[in-house]
Specification:
about 475 residues; alpha+beta; Glutamine Phosphoribosylpyrophosphate, subunit 1, domain 1; Rossmann fold; 2 domains; 16 helices; 24 strands
């Protein structure tokens, strides 16, 4: 997500470049909502940021205030109607909203609305409609009333005609940061997006806090007490390595994890190779910690998206072979340590080990820079059932045989946490240890979708 309030700047282009920097967080759809002070225009479509927008489109989107979103669906179908930002008419104008995370009380919130208010199947649409539904309240008043009732993970950017808002759930599970431009303010999911647009990092949006940004500057409103539980998986995979979370550079944390992994699980090998790009920092650290030479044994096709984020298993398996190709001269006859960030379903590693053996590797020792993913995530990562998680069903030895490796080892949870330099009690580790910071009813886990048809006709833009 990205948001900007900057009179006199080309905010559509700032938002485009901000989303481009955040493309790794979602690859299904992209959208920008923009206001000139009188009306909000929303332009969105399926596809990558560079596919949805072009120079002519951005030139036509003029104003002083914008929000943007690139979607990775975890609830609701991957269709145009569920692309973000979502929009609803509100009071004298409109309201547009972008959301990162998953809510766990969506049906309860939806029950507060007339049935004809919903046209999509996402928790985001419910939030947008509720914020826009009371004609007697300002956007700020509506948000301060609604947000304490919302449960789950939500980092939000939303806007009316004059004001940019940013809010984060009490646990702060998903990241959100504030930045300063010469002529205004920026909010984004990661500090890397601030760097791209030339903004200075000011601070993180605090858990349980809403920022209000307009001609009066930035004001902070606390809608509920903070209970910080930032997502540990951000350090493992989700965030860009050039991002900083809770004061810790992600790349530095991943390199340190690799050093610790080398000490915890050494291997007799000739070279250390990463699974690029997310496994590279930990592989550098493993080489440093073990004294085994680092080498690039796999070439990545930069034009293929993240296989983990593809919406179907068929696309994931195809994407793995499109994405990576082994360097036979580097790995032929060698004993390899292959460092990857995580094993979720096991398909990536199974295909990789097979490719490496076909390319002549003598031995393949897999080392993983996160603990086994044992539990589903209900807060915005797309492995929603335990049946999908290979480590939730097989032992490490069984996984090793399943992927065809000579050995397999994971970093310990305490070692990973230590490398982040964040206290254990301020992190959500639920996918690793099953301790959920927000209680989820056992009978309802994984059932937070709104099952209804989408009747809205497809269009590239809407306005009010």
């Amino acid at each position: 997500m990205f948001g900007v309030w900057a009179p006199g700047e080309e905010v559509s282009k700032l938002t485009y470049f901000g989303l481009y920097a955040l493309q790794h967080r979602g690859q299904e759809s992209a959208g920008i909502a923009l206001s000139d002070g009188e009306r909000i225009v929303v332009y969105k479509d399926m596809g990558l940021v560079s596919q949805v927008f072009n120079e002519a489109t951005l030139e036509s989107l003029r104003g002083h205030l914008a929000i943007g979103h690139c979607r990775y669906s975890t609830t609701g179908s991957p269709v145009w109607e569920n692309a973000q930002p979502t929009f609803y008419s509100a009071r004298e104008g409109g309201l547009a909203l972008g959301h990162n995370g998953n809510l766990i009380n969506t049906p309860e919130l939806a029950a507060m609305l007339p049935s004809d208010r919903l046209t999509a199947t996402t928790d985001t649409e419910v939030l947008t409609s509720l914020l826009a539904s009371n004609p007697d309240r300002t956007t700020e008043e509506a948000a301060m009333e609604l947000l304490p009732k919302v449960k789950g993970a939500f980092s939000l950017v939303f806007m009316d005609e004059d004001t940019l808002y940013a809010a984060r759930d009490p646990q702060g599970i998903r990241p959100l940061v504030l930045g300063r431009l010469d002529s205004g303010w920026v909010v984004a999911s990661e500090t890397a997006a601030l760097d791209i647009v030339g903004a200075t990092v000011v601070r993180e949006v605090e858990p349980g806090e809403m920022l209000v940004i307009n001609a009066n500057g930035v004001s902070a409103k606390r809608f509920t007490p903070a209970e910080p539980k930032g997502c540990l998986f951000e350090y493992v995979y989700l965030a860009r390595p050039d991002t900083t979370i809770a004061g810790r550079n992600v790349n530095s944390a991943r390199v340190e994890v690799g050093r610790r992994l080398a000490k915890e699980h050494p291997a007799e090998a000739d070279i250390v190779i990463p699974v690029p790009e997310s496994g590279t920092p930990a592989a550098v650290g493993y080489a440093e910690g073990s004294g085994i030479p680092f080498a690039q044994g796999l070439v990545k096709n930069s034009y293929v998206g993240r296989t983990f984020i593809q919406p179907s298993q068929t696309l994931r398996e195809l994407g793995i072979r499109l994405k990576l190709n082994p360097l036979r001269d580097v790995i032929g006859g060698k004993r390899l340590v292959v460092v990857d960030d995580s094993i979720v379903r096991g398909n990536t590693q199974r295909a990789l080990v097979r490719m490496l053996r076909e390319a002549g590797a003598a031995e393949v020792h897999v080392r993983i820079s996160s603990p086994p993913v044992l539990w589903p995530c209900y807060y915005g990562i797309d492995f929603a059932t335990k049946a999908e998680l290979i480590a939730g069903n097989l032992s490490t030895e069984e996984i090793c045989r399943s992927i065809g490796a000579d050995s397999l080892a994971y970093i310990g949870l305490d070692e990973l946490i230590s490398a982040t330099e964040v206290r254990k009690d301020r992190l959500c580790r639920a996918c690793f240890d099953g301790v959920y910071p927000i209680e989820v009813d056992e009978d309802s886990r994984g059932k937070y979708l709104l099952e209804k048809s989408c009747g809205t006709p497809k269009s590239a833009s809407v306005s009010a």
